[in-house]
């Protein structure tokens, strides 16, 4: 009860301060909802935290990330702060070695580094540590810590010893819950073989989802809302499914037990089964990406309502009244969405792991007995 009162007090304080925050935000000029949404969701070469200052003198608080590119003049490593915020007539940001970051509204290579060579724009080999990559490293380090600490406890204790407590006990509960209630019923005797990958998927996705809800570094990166990340996880599962599949699995794809006219001369069923090989990982990729992307977009849209209402009316009194009233509604909806996102973070990690286990088990078909 004590902690609930503290949480409610913080929410009440934030609700009181929100109108002032929204009014200051609206003074910057026209509220660009698109920029608010994409500024959080899209990848970038710097990590923008917030803006500080008063009207007309806002100072951005930014974490500059390392740029690593190979251009026509060789490899270059420097900070993204070398790209000036002052834009030239072409809308690009001047930088060293004839490298510029394209404007987000550019038709070609938006928000990407290009090299100016003889009036032409050339994309260099770019392996820079972007916001998404930095978030990936942070989540990977976090994953190693929360897994290796319980593993160290297990190494020092025997199965008949007293159950662990605290953080180690919490992680044991999570691990055994996924292992016993999701993987074992699905994979059976093959569970120990595929559990390392599936448990890694579950905890990596779960922690990445939770870290994306934290509004400040080291959180705030929308890793699972990036199609590249979910694509990599889906491709890895795809490779495991098809490279470990049994002969019976491939037989059912290319010569299933259906009437011959459905297999020859027109291979209708083999085509459908072969097409299904690619739709399974695609379902994993799109489901995770779409759910996390949409959740972040909706939560940010609710926050943007507050800023829009402050900039909506011409009259200062009407402006403040509309903004203050909408702030309470916007904050309430945002808190609801954040709580819902915590639940969704767990559900999406569990669904990805469960479906991966199901698809792997389907690839281990035993020969049918006559």
UniProtKB/TrEMBL annotation:
GO CC annotation: plasma membrane; proton-transporting ATP synthase complex
Transmembrane segments: 136-154, 194-216, 223-244, 264-286, 298-322, 328-360
Keyword Glycosyltransferase: no
Domain of life: Bacteria
Membrane disposition: Multi-pass membrane protein
Keyword check for Cell membrane: yes
Subcellular location: Cell membrane; Membrane
Keywords: ATP synthesis, Cell membrane, CF(0), Hydrogen ion transport, Ion transport, Membrane, Transmembrane, Transmembrane helix, Transport
GO molecular function: proton-transporting ATP synthase activity, rotational mechanism
One Pfam family hit: ATP-synt_A
Family matches, as InterPro entries: ATP_synth_F0_asu, ATP_synth_F0_asu_bact/mt, F0_ATP_A_sf
Function: Key component of the proton channel; it plays a direct role in the translocation of protons across the membrane.
HAMAP family: ATP_synth_a_bact (MF_01393)
Family listed: Belongs to the ATPase A chain family.
Name of the molecule in the record: ATP synthase subunit a
Organism, scientific name: Prevotella corporis
